[in-house]
Fold this sequence. Notes:
By secondary structure, chain A is of the alpha/beta class.
Amino acid sequence: MVRGHIPSATVSRLPVYLRCLDDLSATAATCSSEELASLAGANSAQVRKDLSYLGTHGVRGVGYNIEELRGQIRQALGLDTGYAVVIVGAGNLGSALSNYDGFSKWGFEVAALIDNDPEKIGNRVAGRVVEPFSELEGIVTERRVSIGVIATPAAHAQAVADRLAAAGVRSILNFAPTVLQVPAGVEVRRVDLSTELQILSFHLSRDAAAG
Amino acid sequence: MVRGHIPSATVSRLPVYLRCLDDLSATAATCSSEELASLAGANSAQVRKDLSYLGTHGVRGVGYNIEELRGQIRQALGLDTGYAVVIVGAGNLGSALSNYDGFSKWGFEVAALIDNDPEKIGNRVAGRVVEPFSELEGIVTERRVSIGVIATPAAHAQAVADRLAAAGVRSILNFAPTVLQVPAGVEVRRVDLSTELQILSFHLSRDAAAG
DNA sequence: TAGATTGTTAATCGATTAACAATC
DNA sequence: TAGATTGTTAATCGATTAACAATC
């Protein structure tokens, strides 16, 4: 496998390609960069360049073998490792996440759902028992948790991130509307509804101004 | 106001600045680009350049007036317009979104929560009655809906997007794990948990490989 | 004035894409 | 072979940032 350095823009497109290949695999065995690009909303040259970082070998005049390509992308993304995830926060959002079948579909395992509210601890959500926040460190260590998902109110997010980082979690997905401060070596990705809404709002008002 | 062309990278950072200024406003009346950068996780030169697109006038040797700056960012993002939002899908995610206070906090109004499941129609979620999907067009027109939020299963997302676009909605926020095909002039932003997880996974496996 | 900080330039860096030789 | 499509180059484009004159 040629890993080398894969640009971050490419990395963030790989999941999109994977999803599109999922659709394509129902009806074809191979696909061209042009087909994949049009489904993924990208440029075909970009698709070819992105895939070239994976050490793929498409066939000139034919295209890419869909199954082989899916395997290569899965491997590049580390999806075959089966990283364990802990979800912190069992409110509306945490429950929605617990019910989300995308975790297992893409090879992740939800190792625990955690909350600090005594009213919620012990409840069943999506077949999982809500466990107490105080057990976080033990759960992370024993269940080899690699990824922490923060689905708490904004006010608690930083404290949760601190505990996750201290427990050894190096990857955090933050749904709380806060910018987290974390030690070097910890990667945070933010999923933020209001940021996205505000970007849409910008374009609406710009278009309105343009007439 | 100097609008000109604001680069998209700048637009996507404005909501982050706004949130950081929200925090800062509790304790200060002005702030420097350096302070704002460190909170927002950016470079101070970048902050100054971003803000310069808004026609801001910071004061040399002093910094930016926080209240004035918030107003300028809000205006640039069109948050003062109060765009109306319709949420399609009243499942776990749609319910979580309905309960989210960020809509009103940032000037958006949730005009309706819609589902096509007879079991859900008529239910109350976060004080709102779930309305039938068949009413979509009427709701969009009468309540002047500008933004559609898709919180349905992936299988229905494209059909919902088609109906939203046909009803005149020009901005769509898509939580379903699909790449939507929409007519020109319709802007889609995707919020995708599994894409974010996969990007984290990439970095984990790369770090593991690096030792 | 001296210190601080902006606004902007210019250099750098990285990402996108048109184009095309290679080749199935 | 003729047609199709890759892999890669090189040009372009856009974003980031160090540096510093301007100036509060």
